[in-house]
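Supplementary Note 3. Input sequence used for the single-chain structure prediction.
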Amino acid sequence: MPQPAFVSTRCCLTVLVALAGLGAAPAATDPTGRTPNMKTVQHLTGFQVIELRRYTIKPGGREHFARYFESYFPEAFEQLGAIAFGDFFERTKTDHFLWLRGFKDMDARVIANSAFYFGPLWKEHRQTLNDLILDSDDVLLLQPLHPDRGVLVLPAVDVVKEERGATGIAVAQIFTVKAGEMDPLSAAAERAFEAYRGEDMKEAGVLVTLDAKNTFPQLPVRTDGPYLVWLGVFQDEQALDRFRTLADRATQTLAATGHLRGETELVVLDPAPRSRLRWLPSNP
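The predicted structure, written as discrete structure tokens, is reproduced below.
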């Protein structure tokens, strides 16, 4: 079976994803017309297998890569029963592009990936994308901490009404956990994460390493876990600044438990123009 033509080298990163995300807030009318209509995505649920994918892009090519990616691929994944939750530019690593993809289960992952990577759309565009990629193997295979704590699916960006594209700030806070200690660490983390919610900062998901055989080996995944990832989105820089204080406090608290095996990574992300996961005036 031929492999997808990725050019890649293994990156070694510790990842907790904190995208300060999407809590429960009542719908409200917004003058920009960007109030989300969640009825349009009621069928997009149950994504229990999640890939956190970090690509290293050739210098100067990241915005071009994002434009190609968003032009061709999100709807293709959705049509195959998968979902592109969101795609982002990392702030401190200007050559990094991060995106999140979901599948219903591991069988669905094989089916969707086979259809996509051996199908006509990827065959047409893979050379263009691969020519911009230096590494695509930094991938965490994850699952929700609990079935209802997966990555929230927001409506697609309205390309007419959201003229500025996706707004807000996302964060991925990544904790490296000692083997066999995910349960006590996640229990302690849940208490710390309670402070991560507010009118201008909302949770988007809590994920942990999925310990499963990679049944689509054409796309490698990391095996150096386990990891705990908190995702969220923020309204603005002021909200992000407040979160940093809370995140530092949580990191110190969780480090003191003895359940972590390495440094915690805080990945600040700017949503790409068509990222579903973004700040909306009334995030659900």
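DSSP finds six helices and eight strands in the chain. The mean pLDDT is 89.
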